[in-house]
Amino acid sequence: MNNPKIYDLEARTFQFSLAVRRFVKKMPYSLNNQEDGKQLIRSSGSVGANYIEANDSLGERDKLMKIRICRKEAKESRYWLMLLDTNGNKDLDIEKDKLAQEAHELMLILGNILKKLTQKAEN
Prior knowledge:
Elements: H1 9-26, H2 31-55, H3 60-83, H4 90-122
Helix pairs in contact: 1-2, 1-4, 2-3, 3-4
């Protein structure tokens, strides 16, 4: 009960997307941060949106493709996070690292789901 991790993946991806949006609002203004922040918001939202689509898929192949997209978008989110410039703000650096870690954990979870779906499809 004291574990802060969310095990409902729809809820977890939603919370990730919300946290990213809050974080981007705090970033110092620069043209780079503005453009990278837009990309980050898109990719982080896409993780959850595609996961919801995967759960309501038209079939196994569709589900497999949607999960692949989810994983790709989580990986892309981590990339955009790494590009954002906090101007040395330690609090923002810590928050950025936590979000990058969450993106990495989502990648691992989605990778395991992909592996199970692929094995199921092969049988």
